[in-house]
Amino acid sequence: MLDRLNEALEHIESHLDRQVDVAELARIAVTSEYHFRRLFSALAGIPLSEYVRRRRLTVAGAEVLAGERTLLEIAVRYGYGSGEAFARAFRSVHGVGPGEARRTGAALRSQPRMSFRLVVEGSSSMRYRVVEKAEFRVAGKKARVPLVHEGMNPAIAAFIRGIDQETIRRISALSDQEPEGIVAVSDGLDPSRAEGTAFDYYHGAVTTAPAVPEDLDVLPVRAGAWAVFENTGPFPHALQHLWRDVFTQWFPSNPYRSRPGPEILRVRLSETNGDPQADAELWIPVERATG
Fold first, then answer.
1. 60 close to 102: Cβ distance less than 8 angstroms
2. Are 42 and 66 in contact (CB under 8 A)?
3. 216, 133 in Cβ contact below 8 A?
4. Can you spell out the DSSP letters for the chain?
């Protein structure tokens, strides 16, 4: 899998002066476009689109300093429709406009070429199982919130505090299958997983109940396979690290890929020496990888 990802990176390098086709990158990596975007952002730490932009402007910067082409020629070569658009993008990466950089020979910033390799630490194992589920619904309360990678998500915390206990009780009573009880459901996540991108958060229950109270929000979920990961550790950091480990360690080592669908987190909180701890299950929709 990592060899194929590195082949896709080579393809990016050879297409920096033209449109980079994400579907073609996914074909080279022998996976889906959806999974490729998510896997790349997890491994690289930045969205695919941002990496391509930085690499393109790194190479364009070298051409600006070389002085062999006009600034407009360089702008057109790297896909910018005007000199102004190129100058804005150039300044956003390098902190200086292309004209000034050429006149003064300014120091520019560089996005190094990436390559992926597997580092085997062997210090821990990941507990998981794969479950086939029929279609179901998530019923509860929904909010549109920003993605936060580290620490508590203030928007989610405030949203949950605003749900009264009677509503919580009614939602919990709808739970009739795994994962049981109140769950946190993330839907519509941007494939880039960029900090601050918005998604739909449900504080709800997994149910097949024929009738759901009209004041609750409902998310239909299609049938399919789910990879279920178990984790215990400090809250919320251990949960956020679990998601990272799933995409950087588990997916590259197992014959599965992610598929569109919500992610479901079941958490049971406790305290150890006054510090919050979480026993968690993370449910991620998956399908068998091909090729």
1. no
2. no
3. no
4. -HHHHHHHHHHHHHTTTS---HHHHHHHTTS-HHHHHHHHHHHHSS-HHHHHHHHHHHHHHHHHHHTSS-HHHHHHHTT-SSHHHHHHHHHHHHSS-HHHHHHHT------PPP--------S---EEEEEEE--EEEEEEEEEEE--SSS--HHHHHHHHTS-HHHHHHHHHT--SSSPSSEEEEES--TT--TT-EEEEEEEEEE--S---TTSEEEEE--EEEEEEEEEEETTHHHHHHHHHIIIIIHHHSSEEE-SS-EEEEEEEEEETTEEEEEEEEEEEEEE---
Is 125 within 8 Å of 254 (Cβ atoms)?
no
Q: What is the mean pLDDT of the segment spanning 146-152? A: 83
| Dist CA 231 CA 281 (whole Å) | 6
Note the pLDDT of residue 291.
58
Structural contact between residues 237 and 138, judged by C-beta atoms closer than 8 angstroms: no
Q: Give 213 or 107, the one with higher predicted confidence.
A: 213
Residue from 211, 207, 289, 220 nearest 252 by CA: 289
Half-sphere exposure in the Cβ direction for 10 (13 Å, CA): 8
Is pLDDT of 124 > 50?
no
Closest by CA position to 238, among listed 130, 122, 126? 126
Q: What are the residues facing 144 on neighbouring strands?
A: 200
| Residue tagged 């090729």 (tokens) | 291
Q: Phi/psi at 51 (nearest 5 deg)? A: -65, -45
- Ramachandran assignment for 99, one of left (phi > 0), alpha (psi -120 to 50 degrees), beta (any other): alpha
Q: Rounded to a whole number, what is the largest CA-CA distance in the chain?
A: 71
